[in-house]
Amino acid sequence: MRGEMKKKQDEFFTGIYNETYNDLGKFVSRRTRNPGMSEDILQEVYLEAFRHLDDLKTHENPVGWIYKTAYNKIKKMNSIYNRHAFYETSLEEGVDQEVWDHGELVELEEYRTALREDEYEILIKKYVEGYSHKDLAQVSGSSVAGSKMKLSRIINKLKKICRIVLLFVRF
Predict the structure, then answer these.
(1) How far apart, in whole angstroms, are the C-alpha atoms of residue 68 and residue 81?
(2) Beta carbons within 8 Å of 5's beta carbon, 6+ residues apart
(3) Same domain, yes or no, for 83 and 134?
(4) Is residue 136 within 8 Å of 122, Cβ to Cβ?
(5) CA distances to 4, 14, 15, 66, 86 from 10, in Å
(6) Which whole-number Å values give the CA distances from 106 to 77, 78, 91, in the listed order?
């Protein structure tokens, strides 16, 4: 009985692998910033598929699941590649190490004037340093729900500012 179930799982995985591999390979290679990453991403995608085989078998669109997983892996790998490229460039050009330590801080610097200092720090802790809502709550001395609400309000504030800037630019 168990051997038969294993055989069905293997057949399902082999079938979905054969059905998607070539097109997924093209999809991935067109979207990666480093051609050498394509094989690594494909391997990660099919490993993830194998780990979640039971869920994948009952999923309404297993091919879509595979592509969405690939998209997320590409996004993650491109982000890592960009960070390394920035780091290598910054070393060559003599960029201050403090700028590298905060990575995306350079991109978020423009928000500093639009936000209060505490709001800006929360934004940096969440999106640059990778704090969870639980960690943010501990740092700010609030509940997890309070942390989520603060972050939501900060993002809404930034959205309003962006809309105002866009309206101003149009005229």
Answers:
(1) 20
(2) none
(3) no
(4) yes
(5) 10, 6, 8, 16, 42
(6) 20, 18, 16
Write out the residue range of the structural domain in which residue 131 sits. 102-170
DSSP string, 144-166: HHHHHHHHHHHHHHHHHHHHHHH
- Residues 87, 15 share a domain: yes
> Along the 171 residues of the chain, how does pLDDT read in single tens digits?
667 878 888 888 899 999 999 999 888 888 876 667 888 889 999 999 999 988 888 889 999 899 999 988 888 887 776 665 555 554 444 444 444 344 444 445 666 777 888 888 888 888 777 788 888 888 888 898 888 888 888 888 877 776 654 444 443
Which of 147, 89, 91 has the alpha carbon at shortest distance from 122?
A: 147
If asked whether residues 11 and 86 sit together in one domain, one would say: yes
Residue 74 burial class via C-beta count within 10 angstroms: exposed 0-12, middle 13-18, buried 19 and up: buried
Model pTM? Answer: 0.49
Give the number of domains in the chain. 2
